[in-house]
Amino acid sequence: MHTLETVAAQLTVVLSPLLTGLLLVAIYRGAAYLRHLADHLKVRTVREAADWAIAQAAALARTVVVALNQDVVNAAKRQGRWTPELARQVKAEAVAQIQSLLTREARRILADLTGDLATYLGTLVEAEVATAPNRRRGGGETAARAGSRP
């Protein structure tokens, strides 16, 4: 029995550092994996936030362009008052309305992504005008297109 205890004690002395080393390697690898996972989740979260802000801006652009076409553009055309200057004013109004309706977080994200929020929103307005039902029915020149001419 004495020999068995001696062998067990010697094995403990020999195996203890080895098991400690293996445990440290496992902890190190686990921490590296967790850092990688956190980075992946952060990128995914940033991408999802960007997609959310872009979708919010696009939806607002659609709504604002439809409203301005109904309220301002079509009336001005019926009255013969539609000019390139009025078109620029309507586009500026559309951009201002979208900016005011965007959430603070969406404005921050879009400004970070684009560097120039107003220009980005103006581009969204122009894109929306190009696909607006008025445009597809051959309703003539719309606010953003007329406003984009020199």
UniProtKB/TrEMBL annotation:
Keyword set includes Transmembrane helix: yes
UniProt keyword Membrane, yes or no: yes
Keywords: Membrane, Transmembrane, Transmembrane helix
Transmembrane segments: 6-28
UniProt name for this protein: Uncharacterized protein
Protein species of origin: Candidatus Hydrogenisulfobacillus filiaventi
Lineage, opening ranks: Bacteria, Bacillati, Bacillota, Clostridia, Eubacteriales
